[in-house]
Design a protein that fits this description.
about 160 residues; alpha/beta; four-stranded mixed beta sheet; 5 helices; elongated
């Protein structure tokens, strides 16, 4: 697995940092802060991550709804200039910056997508059509196609064009 090219670096309470989510892409690192305890360390968080990943653009991509629920101040929104690039299980693609639903990508499904692809490659059946339910950016569908399916339908209107 290509974790060096993209992954979730910090996943909140699971990493003993409640309210902090950090996702790494090929060129960007997106940070979301959802708790007051960590919000006061925004500058330290940014400088620490910048020192570790000097070639990446560091962006705070806060969820305003979560911040309102925690009665946290809103900050000037930082913009993602280019689409996010993902390299996962040998598939390279982009997530258009205008379709971001949340801090980022569903990295936690990386192994499941790899398992699906592996299973389909091992099956000795004719693989024609697939369906990518709740496709978001189409990553499940891309794995289906790379496993030999001839076509994949998306269950929602394709926002990625």
């Amino acid at each position: 697995m290509e974790y060096q090219d993209g992954c979730r670096l910090v996943y909140g309470i699971s990493d003993s940092l409640p309210g902090l989510i950090v996702d790494k892409y090929e060129k960007y690192i997106l940070i979301q802060v959802n708790t007051a305890g960590l919000d006061r360390f925004r500058n330290l968080i940014r400088s620490t991550i910048r020192s570790l990943f000097v070639s990446h653009e560091i962006i705070f991509y806060d969820n305003e709804e979560y911040r309102k629920a925690e009665v946290l101040p809103t900050h000037d929104k930082e913009e993602i200039v280019n689409d996010l690039e993902v390299l996962e299980n040998g598939i390279h693609y982009k997530i258009p910056k205008n379709v971001m639903q949340k801090i980022g990508y569903y990295y936690d499904h990386r192994e499941n997508r790899a398992r699906l692809k592996s299973l389909l490659l091992r099956l000795n059946i004719k693989k024609e059509k697939g369906l990518d339910l709740f496709s978001y950016v189409g990553s499940w569908g891309l794995h289906l196609l790379s496993a030999g399916l001839s076509s994949v339908d998306l269950s929602i209107k394709d926002k990625c064009n």
